[in-house]
């Protein structure tokens, strides 16, 4: 990280400390982050810092996006659905037409618009080729029918990138991405805000599309059948982002646990004074430092345009699994307090389980890595 990175990180952290931390519990209770917070974050330059200046961004590289997620995590939150919103911005930057970028990107960067990406369906998870949501051409429009499940920002999103089948017989080549403007889409409905194991403040929804008519100009990339390639091209960055968040969360958890065991007393001494506590924390710190070194290397490769799919998969499964393990160890050191939701560790424990599934399960990550090892040149 350069001095510019550090300055941006401190600015982001101060914003989250002032505008996010005081409201975390209320948002968990409500099951959604207040809409006004999105606009405040946009005003602070935290939505799309890697977007071009002409659309309100800072024109920085993608590492500045990662810093936003790190600062959010450092402030103790994993609920705000900025990451999904940021994914849509990068899709528009990579594949959107100039008209699409001019129409939507300024609002997404300012926080006046909230974005979601709708991939998962009731009968499909990681197998995106098997999706059933259909978009059929009708004159100048597409007509969408189908449903989506587990969609982050589903209750609040104004702009939804929907993964559809435009050619049901085409397999991966039949997948396209269509942008649905929620307020201008009769037939589009939001289901319930789903209750989850953790991430209570992140609205996660069912979405339903019944004869939803979308202008043909809302096709992302101007060419049908490119959706699967577009998704696969962006996944390394998305997965590395999850690794970055897991890495930052580990750091936060370890620091919180250190503070707890230094002030908590048992049998006449600090919990920190027990050898078991010291050894467990030594293990956690080592796992975190090893993880950070690899994740940092991957971030450098990403900025240089050299990050491979298998490296991103390695970072994602390792960091998320290690985070889950570190949280478990740290909760144990809290004793009974670790089971109380008034302590941050309890929320981290619940939230950490998501990391091993979202963005591709760790089993899928291992399959990607194994395929690269099975190819002639070591790469898929």
In words, what does this structure look like?
- It is a single chain.
- This protein is of the alpha+beta class and 380 residues long.
- It has three domains: 3-113, Orthogonal Bundle (Butyryl-Coa Dehydrogenase, subunit A, domain 1), CATH 1.10.540.10; 116-224, Butyryl-CoA Dehydrogenase, subunit A, domain 2, CATH 2.40.110.10; 229-374, Butyryl-CoA Dehydrogenase, subunit A, domain 3.
- The protein contains eleven helices and nine strands.
- The protein has helices at 3-19, 24-30, 35-43, 63-74, 82-95, 98-110, 227-263, 275-303, 309-334, 344-355, 362-374, and strands spanning 115-118, 134-138, 141-152, 159-165, 175-181, 188-193, 204-215, 265-266, 269-270.
- A four-stranded antiparallel sheet has the order 2-3-7-6, with no helix packed on it. It has a three-stranded mixed sheet with strand order 1-4-5, covered by helices on one side.
- Helix 5 packs antiparallel against helix 7 (227-263), helix 7 packs antiparallel against helix 10 (344-355) and helix 9 runs antiparallel to helix 11.
- The protein is globular.
- The relative contact order is 0.10.
